[in-house]
Amino acid sequence: MKLEEVKGVGPSTLRKLQSIDVSTVEDLINFLPKTYIDFNSPVSLNDLCDGQFSLIRVRIVKVTRPVKTKNGLSFFTADAVDFDAPETDKNRLKIVWYNQPYMLQKVKADEKYFVFGKVKFSGRRAELINPKIEPLDKQKNLSGIMPVYRTKGAVQQGVFKGIVDDALRKFSPADIANEKVRERYGIESVKDAFIRAHCPTSVEEGLKAQERIALEDTMKEILYYKIINSQAKENRVFEYRLDKSAVDDFVKSLPFPLTPTQKNALDEIFENLKSKRRMNRLLIGDVGSGKTIVALISALYAVKCGYQVAIVAPTEILAEQHFNNAKKFFDGFNINLAFMSGSVKGAERKERERDIESGKTDVVIGTHSVFSKTVKFRNLSFVVIDEQHKFGVAQKYDLQEKGAGVDTLTLTATPIPRSVLMLLYDELQLSEIDKSHKTKVKTFLVPDYKKDGMFSYVRDEAKKGNQAFIVCPKICDSEGVETYGAKTLFEELKNGVFSDVKVALIYGKMKAKEKSEIMQSFEAGDIDVLIATTVVEVGIDIKNATTIAVLNSERFGLATLHQLRGRVGRGDKKAFCFLHTLDAGNPRLKALTEFDEGYKLAELDFTLRGGGDYLGTRQSGEQDGGKYAIKITPDQIRFAKEIVTDGVLQEGFEIDKDDFYYYENKFKDVTVS
Fold this sequence. Notes:
The protein is α/β, with parallel strands linked by helices. Among the domains are: about 40-145, CATH 2.40.50.140; about 245-430, P-loop containing nucleotide triphosphate hydrolases (Rossmann fold, 3-Layer(aba) Sandwich), CATH 3.40.50.300; about 440-595, Rossmann fold, CATH 3.40.50. The chain is built from 21 helices and 23 strands. The strands form 4 sheets. Strands 2, 3, 4, 5, 6, 7, 8 and 9 form an 8-stranded mixed sheet that branches. Helix 17 (about 560-565) links the parallel strand 22 (about 545-550) and strand 23. It is globular, with a radius of gyration of 31 Å. The chain starts with 10 loop residues before the first helix and ends in a 6-residue tail after the last helix.
């Protein structure tokens, strides 16, 4: 069925619909309401909220004469009280009509009306500007449930709704699950869901219908991913012939025993490497839990099997820490290491690149510089990516492309929402390491008016011999923006409350040597308080650091805040994280005061922000560009996965050619074999 066959769609309307990406009938019915307005539940003046669209029953008590402004605008106002309140009631609503003189004939004092519009408070008094209005005893348009669409003004809401209604009468979308499967799982047909989403009898019904449509979309995506990815499977290029006992001598040489969960993670990694499919494993463990040693043991195994390994970190500080740890642990095991970052230049860089390309270098450890086109490997088979949320999706695949069928191990304390989503779709395998016995960090929200007390606490801790971090979202202040810059704050605190303690400043744009010297001084205890940007987010291990204060914490993502919190509490002393904020009601910040498990925080972040385009390049944001008025939760995706795996694939289904080609094109560059 063509879009032009829908009643109300002529050439002009068709162009307008195409401007909002509606080109087919399928596009039209999938253009779901962004919200619903309930005209069945009017509110009283006492219950009005600033910025909300509200339906109110009022009695007009006064209508003013029209007034003309200097710039030619005309307006008149009316005072109103609740429809059942006395005229003397002091709780009044001000209504203003601009350039609508005809409304004077419709608005009469002492009459009762329904009024609908966006509430704005001026002081303590609520106002409505140019609201819709109907007599209380002649309610017609302001009744029932009104869907509101994201038409961006291209098509009027009423016109769009009429077009959708006609399309729903003529078009029947097919279900991915047959009737038998739908009955087993208690789900309605997708056709009925579309009808209820566009024509609900209550707001709850509309949202429930959108959940069903989201379930259908998710099922379809999972199904076609499974079909296409199964066709794309190839035998791995690299074979790991050695038994896992090849690393036993190295494990015995460690100055500490491996924990049961570390051993389990290694078993899962070795099992992956022995399989015929490329590994894409996520290793989750809070800071200090021992992810790095698991990665180094895995890297050693790959090298012993005759291959090269790349270990990539988001900052030079963390990359240097990995390099130094690898040198220490691999000492005596004949492993050739190379460090690669943006600070390695000239003849030295060219020499390292030659050694990597010739295969002389076994393990390359560095920053995103390893992604560079000039870095070429002879036989790269294994890649370790530390702190996943700091790398873009394209960068990760760039590195994987340096070796066909390369195996990937990603280390993280907090998987970003996209990773949670990929796990649910079975694209990532998951290994977890239990938290170490490090001190639990108590987390508190600090409103702006209490920040001076927060700084005083940090000073007191420094005077006791403890160390602290203070993290700012920016290097410099921005005019007109209420954010703290690290440079300005450093000068202010150094000459103020921190005048009698040793304080230093560090940020990403400093020269590598300067940053390294500052960090060495901090590690040696020569600095009490380090004021920084997020350059300290990862790779800092200071046992004596007991406090971290994050300024404007609402400007950071959950993953970053969780990593920052992990900079303290690495010793035996009590540790505290203070999240200064101008938005104390922020649900993400509140979650940090309640949870310290990275995976729980990632699932919450998924629910609050959406999982991102799970096979695309966006790291977060609602699935399908915000198509739904609801959030897709991990539980809903698990349910969709269950229906596809245990229902649709078992009972049979029909492949839609258009859908197949669409998903084949979407998945072709990112299927994981």
